[in-house]
Please model this.
Amino acid sequence: MGLFNITHPAFFLLTGIPGLERSQFWLAAPLCVMYAVALGGNTVILQAVTAEPSLHQPMYYFLSMLSFSDLAMSLATLPTVLRTFCLNARTIDFDACLIQMFLIHSFSMMESGILLAMSFDRYVAICDPLRYATVLTNEVITGMGLAVTSRSFITIFPLPFLIQRLPICRSNVLSHSYCLHPDMMKLACADITINSIYGLFVLISTFGMDLLFIFLSYVLILRSVMAIASREERLKALNTCVSHILAVLAFYVPMIGVSTVHRFGKHVPRYIHVLLSNIYLFVPPVLNPLIYSAKTKEIRRAIIRMFHRIKM
Model:
């Protein structure tokens, strides 16, 4: 049987950037910088929210959840991406690939759910400020966090089993430096209709619905803000949403770009597909801590105080 057993290969071969194999080693340095920013930035925000009593508020609890999902996403992709680009070590065991696929898709969905929860937080804060403290209690925030986490793991749980039941015999070469469900199922020499239908169902029922409700929440926020008489008060209210809007754009724009290129860009060079997929995975974890540190003075002050205490 050689490399393959009855149902699947013993390992997969990961791919860096097709056509740029000779120069991809030079991408290792910027990748390391991005990982350092993602891991360091999100860890700092988590510690700042934990250590600073003034940040023990719903908005910052949701931000710490966002940082946790970004941190987990970075850790899930880091081993294979750096091995592929730095050491040209391209092999990954079949089971390890399934685990990585499960983690990447789960934490990506978790981030989408947290962004939706944060939009609800902004909606209540602006549209019904008098009830903000009574609506978003610690129990409600904990429940929302558990609901987002449970949805992610329960929805993605069938994917490894859907892949495991497929005989993979066309090839064992994946298109990326990490494992994704669409990439793995395309290597099967069997009917992948169930995988495709379930993948589409997951995409529409989670990411699609999250984006729709985020959009609707901002329609209601804008309607409420436009009713404010003072221009300064309107700008002040909208300014509290800027960080969240940028985080939503950083997450969904690369995702929509990747989906569009995968579905309609058949003649686009493969390295463009790979670069866009890497942007989708790397941009949110890198940008989110920078966005919130730059745009939220309370976070900035907490980080400065934290580093001052460490220095002392």
Remarks:
- Residues 66 and 200 are 24 Å apart (CA to CA).
